[in-house]
Amino acid sequence: MNVYGDISPRTAGYAAKRLLKRGQALLTTERFGQVDPQGKNKTKTRKFRRYNALAAATAPLAEGITPQGSKISYDDVECTLEQYGDYVRITDVIRDTHEDPVFNEMFGVCGEQAAETIELIRIAVLKAGTSVFYSNGESRATLASTPKREDFFKIKRWLSANRARKISQIVRASINYGTDPVAPAFFVLGHTDLEYDLSQLTGFVPVEKYSDSTKAIPGEIGKLDSFRFVLTDMFKPWEGEGASEDGTYLNDGTDNDVYPLIVVAKDAYGIVPLQGENAVTPMVKNPTPGDSDPLAQRGFVSWKTMQTAVILNHLWMARYEVCATNL
Q1: Torsion from C-alpha of 140, 326, 23, 83, nearest 10 degrees
Q2: How do 227-231 and 220-224 pair as beta strands?
Q3: Which residue in 308, 274, 27 sits closest to 173, CA to CA?
Q4: For the segment 236-280, what is each residue's pLDDT rounded down to a tens digit?
Q5: Beta strands in the chain (DSSP E)
Q6: Least confident stretch, 21-25, 137-141, 299-303
Q7: What global pTM score does this model have?
Q8: 280 near 301, Cβ under 8 Å?
């Protein structure tokens, strides 16, 4: 329970009416995934189905003879929605006496918590992909290298060989749900610590040198060939899981930190909220009398959601593991 002493009035000096802004994370995963809400009363399980392509019919037909024909095959990808949520309790004393609009502020804080929770859940799924490339060595434990230009071309060759398509539509970053067209590209999602190393790649074009920089999306720092880079501080590294550190790369004091760069093509992963655009249910209860609160002393702000994310095709997404230069 948050009580009056926890949220004390600002009596020691002049109380500014404008509250300080909070640092909000840049959320990116929803923009590049296949968003498909689960309807209500449809169970917690979602099944995606992909029909496999038929082999090319290269044998010429024999006159008067019906060919054997082909048989359809398909792959199912299942995922299960899980429920998440939290709440903040506030007393009537805070509501009635505090100079700040505490309930409004707590509503904003809970909204940010919900958004970051969902983002971290989705990032954890993307980081668990099975298609992995390393900037040097053959494993995470041997990593001691920043991103390399030739590795991105290696990833591009691999994606193309698996018929991965570039993304040309992304989910609109506004309350008006929909999609916006973008120049076709493979999008690379990663941590802001990697901005320097990516900017040093030969052929890297920063956003300010785009022919129309207004078409860059939030968090985008530039492009390299068919790749566009979008960074956020939500893609946390695996701390101390690389090679022994020598001070060249960011580290935990013993071994190098390893950063994931997630390269995604069209329809590489799916996002499944329970109904609605973002499927988060916010709730606010002012202190009101009831059996458990006869004097109307307690209220709360809360949220809950049911979410899941799933990799739809491991061959259309790659995890490129690298180190970040210690500046």
Answers
A1: 10
A2: antiparallel
A3: 27
A4: 999 999 999 999 999 999 999 999 999 999 999 998 887 655 578
A5: 34-35, 45-51, 74-80, 82-91, 132-134, 167-171, 179-190, 205-206, 220-224, 227-231, 259-264, 269-273, 280-285, 298-311, 317-322
A6: 21-25
A7: 0.85
A8: no
Contact of 42 with 267, CB cutoff 8 Å:
no
How distant, in Å, are the alpha carbons of 47, 295, 296, 297 from that of 291? 43, 9, 10, 12
**Total residue length of the chain:** 327
Question: What is the rounded CA–CA span in Å between residue 153 and residue 67?
Answer: 42
- For 121, half-sphere exposure in the C-beta direction (CA atoms, 13 angstrom radius) is 23
State the residue for tokens 């169970």: 43
Q: Bigger pLDDT: 93 or 132?
A: 132
As given in the structure block, the two tokens for residue 71 are: 């048989």
